[in-house]
Amino acid sequence: PPAFDVTGLPTLFGACVYSFMCHHSLPGLISPIRGKNRLGLHLALDYTLITIFYLLLAFTGAFAFAHLSDLYTLNFVPTDNENIFLEVVEYFLALFPVFTLSTSFPIIAITLRNNLQSLFLDTSRIESYNFVLRKLLFPIVTVAPPLLLTYYLEDIGVLIEFTGSYAGTGIQYLIPTFLVVSARRHCNNLLGLGVVNKYKSPFSHMAWAVFVLLWSLMCVILVSVNISEKNS
Asked: Ranges for the Amino acid transporter transmembrane domain (predicted)?
């Protein structure tokens, strides 16, 4: 593939937002740690290792294939191969997303069902509701949309761009930014401006929040342009 293709930037932004969803576990991992003096160094080493693996994956794919699909595993479509070991590897790589989704989808579906029940029902008297509400309605609402999407949608790249840009931007960029700004204002009003937090983030300046909002807006615009160009 070409070394640089400016038309691929919208897809890149969508993939970046989508990959950012992997960071949602960081607060849960950091909170229980007592000694946070070298936490920044540990996280930096962790992300450096992740970056090395991503670069290794990207460069090997760039040199191995003349054309790269948006979903990387689609490049390993099984072919007629006399070597049984290589054929098994090809099938494993092609089916790798199926393996990962098969393990995570039930957990995510159960979590979403429980959240919907907590939102619309009184969980303290859940047994008082009829069988349809307790056992049928919310599981169907949870499972039906993904099944319909997989049945009718052929281009997975569009799904990645859509969820990564629109849903991902709202969940991973906009909501956390507004929550952080609101929480900082609340803490300043509650504790006062004289309190110094030695563990405060180096990105605590208001300019970073504005940057995140501008970045999210640019991601949405670029991905929207890319989707409209594909459909035209």
From this structure: 3-187
Helices (H), the chain: 9-20, 26-30, 39-64, 84-94, 96-120, 131, 138-152, 156-162, 168-169, 175-191, 206-231
Label residue 11 exposed, middle or buried (CB < 10 Å: 0-12, 13-18, 19+). Answer: buried
Matching residue, tokens 């609340």: 186
How many other CB atoms are there within 10 angstroms of residue 16's CB atom?
14
Q: Which residue has the tokens 């009184």?
A: 122
The answer to pTM > 0.90 is no
Q: What is the mean pLDDT of the chain?
A: 78
pLDDT above 70 (res 15) = no
pLDDT tens readout for residues 57-100 = 888 888 888 777 767 777 777 777 777 888 888 888 878 877 87
CB 182 within 8 A of CB 36: no
Burial class of residue 44, CB neighbours in 10 A (0-12, 13-18, 19+): exposed
- As a dihedral over the C-alpha atoms of residue 132, residue 133, residue 136, residue 141, rounded to 10 degrees, the angle is 140
Two tokens at 103? 């393990």
| pLDDT at residue number 211 | 92
